[in-house]
Amino acid sequence: MILSLLPIASAELGAETPEFLSRSFLHWLTNSILVTAIVLGVIVWIVRSCTRRIEVIPGIGQNFLEAVVEGFYGAVDGLLGHKLAQKAFPLLGTLFIFILISNWFGLLPGVGSIGWHEGEKFVPLLRPGTADMNMTIAMAAVSMVLWFFWTMQVTGPVAFIKEIFGVKGGMTGPILFLLVPLFLFVGVLEVVSILVRPVSLSLRLYGNVFAGENMLATMINIGHLFHAPNWLCQVLSCIVPVPFYFLELLIGFLQAMVFTLLVLVYLQLSTSHEEH
Amino acid sequence: MFTQIFQQFGVDWPHFIAQLVLFLVVYFVLSKYAFAPLLKILDERRKRIEESQLNAEKIKKQLAEAELRYQEILRKANDDAQVLLEESRKNNEAFSQREMEKAVKESAAIVERARHEIASERNRMVDEVKREMTGLIIKTTAKVAGKVLSAEDQKRLSEEAAKELAA
After folding, report:
1. Which of A104, A271, B17, B88 has its CB surrounded by the most CB atoms within 10 Å?
2. B68 within domain boundaries
3. Which residues of A touch B22 (CB under 8 A)?
4. Using CA atoms, how far apart are residues B32 and A89, in angstroms rounded to an integer?
5. How far is B56 from chain A (nearest CA, A)?
6. How do A121-124 and A115-118 pair as beta strands?
7. CB-based contact A43 B26, cutoff 8 Å
8. Is residue B44 helix, strand or coil?
9. What is the pTM of this model?
10. Tens of pLDDT along B22-66?
């Protein structure tokens, strides 16, 4: 096990467990799971320090958290209606905060670049949680299970099935019989699209974060790729990645937003017809 | 096919469950210790603001009512004062009229009495003068006549003098 300084290898597709752990009872502890646990600790610490004493007249920390929560809650409330918003808001807020912190954690220096070689393979000590597909699938699964549960609660199974397979547009008479098979087919497509949702949700997030990690590694190594002299490699590895870091900051935020908003939109689509 | 893809991306049950548990813990912690109390506080604050708005409206209404009542009271007081003033003016007039009458009557009585007194004094004076004169006449007559007048003379003389003086 040698600490790697340069060059940095591109990350593997999946998260890795260091060899010395993989034979022990900690074989499930990958570098991504370690980072997820660290992020969990950070979140707990932030929440505890911001809301140790919740008061009607807020302090600075509570005020900041409240401003964020209130703004986001207003949007959710407007889209889902008051009743469902109260149930769904904690999930949406958790998704956004957790994904955002996980994504940005991956940009900290050392994450993905400090590690060791196991034979030919480079194993980073830390790998962002959202760059592990287990994590993104877990989040998508939780979201879709709760989506199904809340949709059933709000609309009920009969209305849910009617919404998927039923004939829309208020048609009557003989034309209805022509439309029934068409809408049955549309319903099947709808079901497929619903089933694909967790896969698309998880792959989108995983792909973006993983690609970002790899791109940053490539940009840091750009000198070596062109077989530049050593001093030039060092200079390039400091300058070239800077704009990509800003890009990754933006992407980290956008992907957190996209994941959260998509879950929000799924909820809105399946429950909104109940409102009016 | 799916299992192969999953395997390639390092997806398997133990890791999936580990990440799932971690995410659920985050979810639990955030919803229990961050969102629930914050939403409660926000709700409370919204209610409080609503309440205070209602209160403000109520206070405004009460103020308007109080203003109205105050005006009413003021108006009534003004009217009352006017009535009172009028009454007292009337009373005063009647009183002063009466007083004047009384004073006039009294002064008339005083004048009358004074006149009466003056008249009686004058009479008294005239009587006295008459008496003095009678005495003087008798004395003078006696001196002129050079004799002592008898009682009968005196009586006659005084009667005569009195008659003369009265004339």
Report:
1. A271
2. yes
3. 33, 36-37, 40, 129, 135, 138
4. 12
5. 20
6. antiparallel
7. yes
8. helix
9. 0.70
10. 999 999 988 888 888 878 888 888 888 999 999 999 999 999 999
Higher pLDDT, A20 or A35: A35
Question: What is the rounded distance in angstroms from the CA atom of residue B149 to the CA atom of residue B138?
Answer: 8
Q: Kindly list the residues from chain B whose CB atom is less than 8 angstroms away from the CB atom of residue A55.
A: 41
Domain count across chain B: 1
Q: Is the CB of residue A96 less than 8 Å from the CB of residue A72?
A: yes
Expressed in angstroms, the distance from the first to the final Cα of chain B is 177
The CA angle A179-A182-A185, to the nearest 5 degrees, is: 150
Give the helix/strand (H/E) hosting B148. none
pLDDT per residue over B112-122, tens digit each?
999 999 999 99
With residue A132 as reference, give the H or E element that holds it.
none
Which residues 6+ apart lie within 8 Å of B48 measured at CB?
A: A56
Q: Domain for residue A190, yes or no?
A: yes
Report CA A121 to chain centroid distance, whole Å.
27
Q: Answer yes or no: is pLDDT of A78 > 50.
A: yes
The amino acid at A2: I
Reported ipTM: 0.82
Copy the structure tokens of residue A179.
């439309």
Q: Is residue B21 part of a domain?
A: no
Number of domains in chain A: 1
Beta strands in A17-152 (DSSP E): 115-118, 121-124
Q: Is residue A253 part of a domain?
A: yes
Closest CA to A131 of B46, B126, B45, B9: B9
